[in-house]
Amino acid sequence: MPTNxxxxxxxxxxxxxxxxxxxxxKAETKTIPSQCPTCNxxxxxxxxxxxxxxxxxxxxxxxxxxxxxxxRMKCTACAKTxxxxxxxxxxxxxxxxxxxxxxxxxxxxxxxxxxxxxVGITEGTVRIVFNDYINVLEKxxxxxxxTWMGIDEIYLIKPRGVITNIRNNTAVEILKDRNKKTxxxxxxxxxxxxxxxxVAMDMWKPYRDAVGDVLPQAKVVVDKFHVVRMANDSMERVxxxxxxxxxxxxxxxxxxxxxxxxxxxxxxxxxESFNLDGWSKNYxxxxxxxxxxxxxxxxxxxxxxxxxxxxxxxxxxxxxAELYSYFLPVVTAWSxxxxxxxxxxxxxxxxxxxxSLNNLIRVTNRLGRGYSFEALRAKIxxxxxxxxxxxxxxxxxxxDESMSMxxxxxxxxxxxxxxxxxxxxxxxxxxxxxxxxMIERGEI
Length: 444
Known about the structure:
The chain is an alpha+beta fold. The protein folds into four domains: 1-89, no CATH class; 95-140; 146-223 and 349-393 and 422-444, Nucleotidyltransferase, domain 5 (2-Layer Sandwich); 228-304 and 311-327, no CATH class. 43% of the residues lie in helices and 21% in strands. Helix 6 (224-243) packs antiparallel against helix 12 (324-342), helix 9 packs across helix 10 and helix 13 (352-367) runs parallel beside helix 16 (432-440). Residues 405-422 have low confidence and may be disordered.
């Protein structure tokens, strides 16, 4: 009998045939059925055999097919016929259980088509197996509820909601859209949702409404980067409007003006400062727009909420009439979102790591040449080795008197009763820095 190259203890290998691309292995189970699954009677007799093709893990660079000579039995007590149950084989598919698990793990790292070619199955089958694998992970993996939560979105065909744990810099969830109902449903399902203290977000009203309805105790903080970006956008509108009326020679004199104007004044080189000074003299409105942008950034240098509001009022009143329409979106946003914007000065929570995650998702989507949303979500959230897991030790508690009595009953030679509490691992989600390294190494 050939060597059992399958390494499946419940099977005996009858023959092995190999080609350039495949292993064809004939096998049978070692244990014969002993009773009827319908009536549990042991009065069963052989009723023939049938050959089943079972796909297994690729081996030695070849696809593997196991041709199992499956026994059919008949119960003389109830007259029912049945086939023996094949051990180590999935109940729903003609595959070994280890192959299913391998496909699930590989599908997070690789394309479905490459796995299908390596195993010898269809791409659709890989997709179905992958979905089942992710459903199992969804039930078994639980991320800790963030006390500092970030909510943002990324555009993948349409806007998708992204949830992060700001304190631990991890990805927690990617939602199918950013609608209020979707966000609210996710927040309702959170374990210990009352523990959420702060939620950083951009100025998207459904986020604020969902958090207000489900997490009334949480402080909503508008991320400073979304606010100051509006000042940059306003200055850009001034620059483009002004350049539209310039001659080609004048435009050449403003070479690389966009990159200079978007930089903070403290970051400019001597040459850039010299160029900016010249542009401001030749085009006063452009210089004034840059001043307004810098002054708005300066609001976030305030130490207190009150000081920030005073700086904003002074800034708003300093806007020239000819530039007011360009900076009107900033004024409107501050007016509509003022409580959440100035909350930053009490609790400087930033959503910058969520923005970093969005960039990682875009890279992953581009490398995958158009993953489905479900596949992309799984690759980000469930990549093996990307989770930030921390062991939590139980709180030290003073022993009670009954425990002291128990200790007194034992002599020095006896083993003491164990009072150790098993440590519980806390999973905070997919670590962003780890995800970045895995993407760079091509592991996702």
